[in-house]
Amino acid sequence: MTITGFNTLRSMKWLARRFYSMRPDQILYSKEVLQAKENANPVVALESTIITHGMPYPANLEMAKTVEQIIRENGAVPATVAIVNGNCHVGLNDSQLEILAQTGTKSHKTSRRDLAVVIARKLTGGTTVSGTMVLAHAAGIKVFVTGGIGGVHREGEHTMDISADLIELGRTPLAVVCAGSKSILDIQRTMEVLETNGVTVTTMGETGVQIPAFYARESGVLSPFNSPTITDVANLVYTNNILGLKSGTLICVPIPHEHAIPSSFINNIIDNALAKAKKLDIKGKDCTPFLLKEIAEATKGLSLKANIELVYHNAKVGSQIAMELAMLSK
Ligand code: PSU
Ligand code: MN
Predict the structure, then answer these.
(1) 111 contacts 125 by C-beta, under 8 angstroms
(2) What is the mean predicted confidence (pLDDT) over 282-311?
(3) Is the CB of 163 within 6 Å of ligand 1?
(4) Is 47 in the pocket of ligand 1 (CB under 6 A)?
(5) Which residue numbers are catalytic?
(6) Over 60: is that where the pLDDT of 224 sits?
(7) Which GO terms describe its molecular function (predicted)?
(8) Confidence at residue 6, expressed as pLDDT on a 0 to 100 scale
(9) Which tens digits make up the pLDDT trace of 79-88?
(10) What's the first-to-final CA gap in the chain, in angstroms?
(11) What spacing in Å lies between the alpha carbon of 156 and ligand 2's midpoint?
């Protein structure tokens, strides 16, 4: 290697160390993601806790494959993020998706605090919103699609159960597309913590729109900002990036009308699930997966169907955002 080449490599490594919490060369990319990166084409990151801990097999596999297809149909490249046997993957092939979907809750729910443990011990992990953000940012991805983010749990003012997702959104400049957070959470307090952490929150819709509550389109909590168009969202994210803010943008997309579950119906079920979790003393990282399962059972799969449909819709919106953002960035 020439001296110049060596120096270039050294300075690239220095740059990587300087700007990323993780070196990009520690990541394994799928072929299509690698190609998209080379051509500066838009890539959309996807989390994998939703596959391992959020849905049962085989619905989780079907969802994981379909959501990737929707992203491709909308012109972007999907990058499902996960840790397989200690390797960080950005973009999985079908057999890796299959393994992850089958491993399910036997794999580790991996948020930022779990990353080092899962990687060092060569374990397999589904990455949460926070874990996925760390790896997607290291991979240079700008847009990330999920179903629902974690938040402040009810009674969080006593338990301090505040999802690492909220803190990550405050320190990682990614645009995260979601359907709000479930009413298993305290949505008002979730918004307060996001504001404290400097996260820009906008909801697709007209002035006065509420933060969506995952299964329901409304939560009773007003969104701090609204975006009537995809172009508006892309402009916000682009400006966030230009300003060099280290914080992220949360884009809330209400579940499509035809798949929404009325609050009057779902809230009762959520209350029962919360009461059961309290009785069984379910805490920490087990809380969200437990509640999701309880709700899916109590609604006889209706909540699972809604969950899947809102992810598909978010994938479409997220890809459109990624496409517009790529045009602005060129
Ligand atoms: N909400 C869902 N489905 C999910 C999750 C949240 O509707 O699968 C997952 C996401 O990966 C999210 C994580 O990042 O749960 C939050 O977990 P906790 O509440 O333990 O922070
Ligand atoms: Mn928690």
Answers:
(1) no
(2) 94
(3) yes
(4) yes
(5) 47, 182
(6) yes
(7) hydrolase activity, acting on glycosyl bonds; metal ion binding; pseudouridylate synthase activity
(8) 45
(9) 999 999 999 9
(10) 32
(11) 9
- Residue bearing the CA closest to ligand 1, atom 21: 163
Assign 23 a pLDDT band (cuts: 50, 70, 90). low
> With a 6 A CB cut-off, is 50 part of the ligand 1 pocket?
yes
What is the C-alpha separation between 36 and 32, in angstroms, rounded? 6
Q: What's the Cα-to-Cα distance from 61 to each of 90, 94, 117, 203, rounded to whole Å?
A: 17, 9, 26, 29
Q: Whose CA is nearest to atom 17 of ligand 1?
A: 150
CA of 285 to the centre of ligand 2 (A): 5
SS3 168: helix
pLDDT of residue 183: 79
Is the link from the previous residue into 228 a cis peptide, with omega within 30 of 0? no
As a whole number of angstroms, the distance between CA 195 and CA 82 comes to: 28
Query: Which of 50, 169, 309 for mutating ligand 1's site (highest number of atoms within 8 Å of CB)?
Result: 50
Cα diameter, the chain: 69
Say how many Å lie between the CA of residue 284 and the centre of ligand 2: 5
What letter does residue 40 receive in the DSSP assignment? T
Indicate whether this complex's ipTM tops 0.90: yes
Q: In which residue are the tokens 């729910």 written?
A: 109
| Best of 47, 49, 176 for a ligand 1 pocket test (most atoms within 8 Å of beta carbon) | 49
Whether the pLDDT of residue 7 is over 90: the answer is no
